[in-house]
Amino acid sequence: MKGDRVEIVVEAGDGSPRTYEVVATKAGRRVEIVNRRGLVEVAEVTRTGTPVRTARFMAGRVVALVEYPAEDAEQSG
């Protein structure tokens, strides 16, 4: 859903963590997280499941994954 976002904190190796963000930018898109074979993959996908934007990180370097779901108009208003 538009507004969904995932924040990924990764240890860069130089002692300071780096933060990346993947956001569902248009209506009908969502953000999916997959953890497989030592990789964490965060992707913005369309309604049909086609990936639009993908970010991949080594699972051993990921410090945190924070999901921020979009707020529904009914709940906020």
Structure in words:
The protein is mainly β and 77 residues long. Helix content is 5%, strand content 56%. It contains 1 helix and 6 strands; from the N terminus they run E-E-E-E-E-E-H. The protein has one helix at residues 73-76, and strands at residues 5-11, 17-23, 30-36, 39-45, 51-58, 62-68.
Spatial ordering of strands, largest sheet: 2-1-6
Overall pLDDT, averaged? 88
Radius of gyration: 14 Å
**What coarse outline follows from CA principal-axis ratios?**
globular
- Give the structural class: mainly beta
For the biggest sheet, the summary is: 3 strands, antiparallel
Along the chain, the helix and strand elements come as EEEEEEH
Keywords, separated by commas or semicolons:
single chain, 77 residues, mainly beta, three-stranded antiparallel beta sheet, 5% helix, 56% strand, globular
Describe the structure in brief.
By secondary structure, the chain is mainly β. Helix content is 5%, strand content 56%.
Write the topology of this structure.
Blueprint: E1 5-11, E2 17-23, E3 30-36, E4 39-45, E5 51-58, E6 62-68, H1 73-76
